[in-house]
Amino acid sequence: MNTPDRRQFLKTATAATAAAASIAPFAIGAPKGRRALESVNLGVVGTGGRGTGACNDSLTINDNVRLVAMANLRADKAKEKRAGLKEAHTDKVSVEDANIYGGLDGYKKVINHPDVDIVLLTTSPGFRPWHIEEAVNAGKHVFAEKPVCLDPAGWHACKRAQEKAEAQGTAIVTGTQYRRQKNYMEAIKRINEGMIGEPMSATARYCSTGIWYRDREPGMSDAEYQLRNWMHFIWLSGDQISEQAVHNIDVMNWVFGNPDNCFATGGRFTRPEDSEMWDQMTVDYYYPGNKLVSFRCRQVPGTTVDPHNVIYGTEGSCTIKAINGGASIVDNKGEDVWAMRGNIGAAYRQEHKDLVDSVVAGKPIVELQQTADSSLTAAMGRMSAYSGREVSWDYATKTSKLDTFKHDLALHQSMESPGHAIPGEWKLT
Ligand SMILES: NC(=O)c1ccc[n+]([C@@H]2O[C@H](COP(=O)([O-])OP(=O)(O)OC[C@H]3O[C@@H](n4cnc5c(N)ncnc54)[C@H](O)[C@@H]3O)[C@@H](O)[C@H]2O)c1
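Above: the input record for the complex with nicotinamide-adenine-dinucleotide. Below: its predicted structure, written as tokens.
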């Protein structure tokens, strides 16, 4: 904590804080015996596209942050990302070579680094619940990208982490940026205020024309290949429904609560031979009060792109479009009653402002449970589609022992893929 470099940074940050004190004074003290911080040090685990994006978002929106440690499977790639971040945020990037870690265990060095206050967890999703739990157990504040779990075992790990973070007073903010996007917040506020009457049903879609596929490089072990091409291996991505469409499912849970049960179908026609992913899934989610969400996701070249949500109420309907598509409400006569544009970039940055502000104020936000519930809702849809059976919330949270993660993973190990799931053969466990 007290390297000369950090002391200098704290001095500078404190001066800046004092200058800004008349606008927004920091709270003195912290709940549950934790110290409030005036400035915070970030460490990132997983410096791919989103990891670098999350660092950039936090360094852009917050004055009082500094990036000090990085972990990535390949340390050389993290160094490349450090160079780009340093160019954009010269004074806020202070990552020595010694604080850049590679390999499967590098994340432990970031999590346990004494200078790191907030850990950004942005690897492929399979690692997430286990990295979250370890970071919380190390007493760190956490930013966790979505999805935060891929199966019931991961959901239980998140539940433990939520409880521990609440008890010890550490923050967990998650990468479900739509919860902080103005047009989404305003639309859901209006739904809750009754502008569409009682919400009864919805369609939620994440239909697109495809996703990346990364070829195996010469000399790679099975494990290295799967980690590189992680989207196509279910233990790492959870299939499209978890990795991508969890955004829509999270919005549905925001409106309707958690579902009681679901029934799903789907299949694959276009995926590369060794991909375990399906290329489409359709799920009926039944929510309390006999409310139905008709969900579908698809990644098929040459098909219609539709990543939007429509919520139908007794007196009107609300359309909330993805990314910057905006939101609108019409009444049952078809009259426009409200509309608002979207700005997803601002939402990505807001999650990092909220996290840092909450840490600095000593009033940590702990929002893991709602994202764990949405991530489990996505996993339930996949479990139902793969098995060909109905899956209930009770089954997923109380009975299922499904744990897809490879806890004894080694980089050079052979690893046979089970292939893609076939309904009727794939068993619920
Ligand atoms: N909120 C959003 O809109 C949004 C957008 C894009 C991606 N994401 C999420 O962000 C996460 C990362 O996606 P991405 O597009 O950046 O993937 P990516 O493949 O670009 O990056 C993943 C990085 O994690 C590293 N990594 C994997 N396992 C690791 C481990 N055990 N220890 C250290 N490093 C490890 C890899 O080396 C790679 O650099 C995913 O969960 C994805 O769903 C969210």
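Notes for the reader.
The radius of gyration is 22 Å.
Residues 368-387 form the longest helix (20 residues).
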